[in-house]
Amino acid sequence: MTSFRLPTGGLIDRTRPISFTFDGEALTGVAGDSLSSALMANGRLLMGRSFKYHRPRGPVTAGSSEPNALMKIGEGGRQEVNTRATMVELYEGLVAKSQNRWPSLNFDLGAINSLGSAFFVAGFYYKTFMWPKSLWEKVYEPIIRRAAGLGHASYLPDPDRYERSYGHCDVLVIGSGPAGLMAALAAARTGARVIIADEHARLGGSLLNEREEIDGTDGLSWADTIIAELAANPDVTIMPRTTVFGWFDDNVFGAVERVNKHVAVPPAHEPVERYWKIHARRAILCAGAEERPIVFGGNDVPGVMQASAARTYVNRYGVAPGKACLVFTNNNAGYRTARDMIAVGIQVKAVLDSRRDAPDIDAFGAPVVKGAVVTAVDGRKQVAGAAFMRGNGHEHAHCDFVAMSGGYSPIVHLACHRGLKPQWNEKFACFLPPDNGPALTVAGSAAGVFALSYCLADGAEKGRKAAADAGFKSRATAVPKACDEARYDVTPMWWVKESTAKAFVDFQNDVTSKDIPLAAREGYKDVEHTKRYTTTGMATDQGKLSNINAIGILAAATGKSIPEVGTTTFRPFYTPVSFGAFAGPFRGHHFQPVRKTPMHDWADEMGADWMEAGLWMRASFFRKNGEKDWLATATREVLTARHKVAVSDVSTLGKIDIQGPDAGEFLNRLYCNGFAQLEVGKARYGLMLREDGVVMDDGTSSRLSRDHFFMTTTTANATKVMSHMEFCHQVLWPELDVQYVSVTEQWAQMAVAGPFARATLQKFVNENISDAAFPYLAAREITILGGVPARLFRISFSGELAYELSVPADYGDAVIRLVMHAGAEFGIEPYGIEALSIMRIEKGHVAGGEINGNTTAADLGLGRMMSTKKDYIGRMMVMREGMTRTDREVVVGLKPVNSGDRMRSGSHLLKLGDPVKLENDQGYITSVAYSPMLGEWVSLALLKRGRERLGKRLQVYDGLRNIHMQVEVTDPCFYDKEHAKLHANPPHKAPTVEKFAALIRKPATDLVALTRRSPLEKTLKHGRFGAGDGAPGVHLALRYPLSILTVIALKGKTKDVAAAVNGWLTADLPNPGFSSTGKGVSMHWCGADQWFFITAGKPEGAFYREARERFEGLASVSDQSHGRVVISLSGPKARNVISKGTSVDLHPRVFGSGVSAMTQMAHVGVNLVQVGPDSFELSLFRGFAETFWEWLTEMSEEFGYEVR
Amino acid sequence: MRITCPYCGLRPFEEYTYLGDASKNRPTSNDPSTMEAWYDYLYLRDNPRGRMKEYWQHSSGCRSWLVVDRNTDTHEIFAVEAARDFIRRRKA
Q: For residue A1088, which residues of chain B lie inside 8 Å, CB to CB?
């Protein structure tokens, strides 16, 4: 034991030594220490250097408002800067380093700044470094940033794991001191769900730090009995090491739980921090009060600290800040410091009370000097004594620490986060929290209730009231007895005018008592301006200690009252929150969900180069050995499609199943061209406009039967189009009897293009697809090989003879391998979106570059598509003058005058000879490609009066890439202008389907069998994983294969559907938010008049056909068996895992068996259903299956999980 | 901010997508003489500070379009209704 460690007392275990290092020096503390208490026990009061003057600094506090003892904790990627040593729990192997010093904490060259401190006054930087301006960025700023600053962040990746979670309660209690414990107890006893959070490892608040007696026992033992009762209540959640940092709209609170900040390395499977969003019906802020420092000369010398901090070091940590102490106070609370110091044998030289008329209070034998103020402190790195004045007399005392008490400020921050300002209270010289109504009340000293017995009563009453407000019948909770000391009484003293040395207002920002009047003199009189000019109240402590003193000084300097000056704005965060906590698990690979098509693994095997398209992963191109760049590869792929046959995965296109008696009319109103008259079995290219007449999206829609359409959208606009349709139907045309649902994930879709496309497909398509039987724009349901249902569309984006083949997604992998097999004799190869893009540019087909949110159908050369015979979205506004102007930019083709010159998209077009000026702008290039068929670069452009300028020459200007060249305006279609290739019919000998099937027996027997492949085929591993080796907390399983349908009632037919379900499944159709089961079929509500029907064990398509028959004329049915995956999750910790993903409250009182919720988890839309007491099912789009599974298993790890 | 979906219950605003003013009716005529009404429908917005009816979609939930009666200043929500019911009432 060092001489600073007291022989007894405190909440520490002297028998458990803990080794740590500080600036490389090996030191020892004990279990229960904070880093600052352990350093103090080792005689280290010097813990940091100040921001501007590099002055030696020690801890001022023992808690979360610490401005001085900021350190780097940890090493490598775990290193965290600006950490308050007062809040760090000591652990074995802790590595701490001081900051803002060079070469060492003890000898810091930066301290030379102190010599020039006369110049470093408020606004110094603004005044000094203004001129010359050119030096700002390159010279001044880097120097200032290096000299004045806090710790430097590590560039290494953080190896630890972070999580998010959602919490729900009736009553949230923030802080667990006497008021908080009573509030939680009173609320919990009503049966309300309570969360009590505290930033410390142990509950108790001030009871941990003070010597108090409650109900005849010591305060801490009393607290333990309360905590035991709370812990035994299953509806109470105790959250230690959790800082509630913000209060947001609708009583949502942000909190960060430091799960494993008190150990060197978090245990395997556990996060280091967890970010909580807590939804509280009522909240009670019991954050306590902060003791203000006093602004006097030398008040920053290590050893000058809050009187309450001195008591905490002595009482909680069993460590003495020194041997002889001077207490300096302006209120009654300072006297108890004398009591506690004397009790452990520390000499109290005097209690200096600034109040001349202070009441007579027991100082436990220490001399009391009334009307005295400290004017200067001796010592630089440690207090050696202090000079003080009594009246006009100067006196001096030898001491090695000073305990100061400038009065108490209620910690009102959270109560002010939603806009209301705190109210000044003259009697207690402090700001009290504003009245926020019942949603958030404040209890205990945070509400200005300073005496212990009143705090207990206040907590009990506010706890009872909050629970009653939340609907829980209240029973009065007996308030324990406590012995109060002398009434709290304070006479404010904002600074000691007689100070002879620098008196600091804000320690962290080195703001002195002179800086604030200076700022006021220079015109920065508003409190918000003063704050920014002097930096008072900025940086990591946000002025927790300094703001009120600063306001007092500003009031005096401007001749205003304190309420007139007011406070600066309180904003989240109460204390700093790490970026890791906010990012949670969503970083790196999981930054956003990854959406994969059913053919992803196949494409990967083929050597795909991936690119992101929204959340989707799409193959750009498939490189072969020896190809020098992507262009060579894409060129080869184009030539293969143009001369042979090639296949591309286009599953990412949005696909929407549209059914119902008014389906045709619905499409007619959505598209600008007609669809009502489309023949069954035909596809048509459609153009959708926005209501303002601008083109929104394009795609093909096919009519599968009179009342059944299949729409495709572009990949990029799939979500937008779906939302648009829902708006149009629900808001504009609710009279239409139409049902539609996204089936993007149900269908794996591939484009097979090239002269041998038909020859390839005919090998395994059972139906006749000859040109006569299956002409251009044919669209039909077909079967392949053994009878797998599929859809075939004869449409072409490439301009070749081409088909799009849709198969149920789980067959996608097998079918694309089958296509490759069937096309092998023709030289088939896969192609990616680069080749796809080149081919569409060669054909002059518009895409994203041209459909850019500014262009009309006419601009795109598609003006004739706009019907004049019907109403549709955008029809009216496209008639506006500006939309029909003849000088609009329209789509044209461009070819370089010097064949081989390369154009770049984004380049601007000007007339030959015109100077490069905005006024001369004629348009710009939208899409560029090297055309393998033409052997040169070609482009599409938007050009003013473009169609009148065919054959004209223009200049191309690109200032960014310094391109200046000449081009000739052409028709946008560069290749096969007659579109003859759509009907290519090269001779070949086609085997029959049976013969082909027989031929491919080896090596691909499973190709013929066409087995389903689950989206988790590669990812899911069976076994027990995660923490522990006992019974797992969570069981996970994939329910597979399943038959899944979306059933949507026809307009006004909900009751008939319910009757049909009664007859068919002898079960009730579930109401909104519920699910039900009958004859092995589970029905989950999933939207207005919309349900998932799920069952196992039926052959492919059988359940779909059965349901269609049952619901004929009553409901539309879409097969989703391949589009969704269902994961079951059960076990005692299942709720905890799910709560990391969704804000839906899973408490049995709210959720429960038979509840079905549509929500999102980990940024993925899910249908969450409770199927048993601790048993849930999650269903989601198959494309997210892998990414979601990875998240789900990671979230389950801490509980141990088993996959069956 | 949280919105009570009439079907799904109380959910955080992250599950919703905002569209805007729900006070306008789409004109039914395509006659060029009604252009003013179309401008009004498409472009003219009051943007009040205070209470207003707005379209929101429960896009990450049941996908219903809703009409939310909300104070844009305080974020207090007075009523939420499925848009299809709101429209039906307005048309009646």
A: 7, 62, 64, 82, 84
Kindly report whether the global pTM for this prediction surpasses the value 0.90. yes
Residue type at position A932: P
State the DSSP code for A730. Answer: I
Residues of chain B contacting residue A252, judged by C-beta atoms under 8 Å apart: 2, 12
CB contact under 8 A, A727 and B65: yes
For A223-274, what is each residue's pLDDT tens digit?
999 999 999 999 999 999 999 999 999 999 999 999 999 999 999 999 999 9
Q: Count Cβ–Cβ pairs < 8 Å, chain A vs chain B.
A: 91
| Tens digit of each residue's pLDDT (9 = 90 or more) over A937-969 | 999 999 999 999 999 999 999 999 999 999 999
A368: which 2 tokens? Answer: 């009391």
Edge-to-edge strands, sheet with A94-98: A25-31, A13-22, A94-98, A70-73, A80-84
**ω into residue A132 within 30 of 0, thus cis?**
yes
A279–B2 CB contact, under 8 Å: yes
Q: In what order do the strands lie in the sheet with A695-705?
A: A682-689, A695-705, A708-713, A654-659, A739-742
**CB of B92 less than 8 A from some CB of A:** no
Q: How many CB atoms lie within 10 A of CB A963?
A: 16
Lowest mean pLDDT, pick from A324-333, A557-566, A978-987, B63-72: A978-987
Give the integer Cα–Cα distance in Å for B85 and B89: 6
- The Cα–Cα gap between A750 and A655 comes to 13
The CA dihedral of A475, A478, A484, A487, to the nearest 10 degrees, is 30
Q: Closest by alpha carbon to A551, among A541, A562, A560?
A: A562
Determine the distance in angstroms separating the CA of B46 from the nearest CA of chain A, rounded to an integer: 19
pLDDT digits (tens, 9 = 90+) for A645-672: 999 999 999 999 999 999 999 999 999 9
ipTM above 0.90, yes or no: yes
Nearest-angstrom CA–CA distance, A554 and A370: 26
* Whether A437 contacts A443, CB under 8 Å: no
What local confidence, expressed as pLDDT, does residue A879 receive?
92
Chain B residues closer than 8 Å to A1165 by CB: 60
Contact A732/B84, CB-based, under 8 Å? Answer: no
Q: How confident is the model at residue A995 (pLDDT cuts 50, 70, 90)?
A: confident
The count of other CB atoms within 10 Å of the CB of residue A893 is: 22
Q: Which residues in chain A touch residue B61, judged by CB atoms under 8 angstroms apart? A: 1157-1160
What the block records as the tokens of A1051 is: 């307009």
